[in-house]
Amino acid sequence: MNEFKLSILDLLKEDARLSAATIATMLGAEEADVSSAIAEMERDHVIVKYATVINWSKVDDEKVTALIEVECTPERGRGFENIAERIYLYPEVKSVYLMSGAYDLLVEIEGKNLKEVASFVSNKLSTIESVIATKSFFILKKYKQDGIIFEEFEDDHRLLVSP
């Protein structure tokens, strides 16, 4: 991948709403060249989706997000590919990562409540033949996601009083 396309990706990563004209101005390039590069990266699935980062805690929404460590047995000739595919096809699954360390896959899921998440783990995830063990962690609060800080904390301006 050339520097021009990498520069476009860096700009779009920071703000996916940037137009080709704005990017061209920022890079000192022709708008047609930027549009062509973006179209090519979309076609090649380098750019997969344009997304919005939402601070759901500011919305009256009761979503529950969980991270689940999954230990599983790899399949001969395919490794973890088939297992990961079986997992990521469930609509409640938001992300699946192959990991190094004590477990093999990290799965991020969303549910309406704790019961729904627990049901997914016990009835769908843990019943997959290759899955040996799972460990679930519920996200209580997000402070930062995708480089975006959700809560700005004010500095404490009180005077320090010591005995």
Automatic annotation (TrEMBL):
InterPro entries: AsnC-type_HTH_dom (IPR000485), Dimeric_a/b-barrel (IPR011008), HTH-Siroheme_Decarb (IPR050684), Tscrpt_reg_AsnC-like (IPR019888), Tscrpt_reg_AsnC/Lrp_C (IPR019887), WH-like_DNA-bd_sf (IPR036388), WH_DNA-bd_sf (IPR036390). Residues 1-81 form the HTH asnC-type domain. The lineage of its organism: Bacteria, Bacillati, Bacillota, Bacilli, Bacillales. SUPFAM superfamilies: Dimeric alpha+beta barrel, Winged helix' DNA-binding domain. It comes from the Bacteria. The keyword Hydrolase does not apply. This is Lrp/AsnC family transcriptional regulator. The keyword Transcription regulation applies. One of its GO terms (molecular function) is sequence-specific DNA binding.
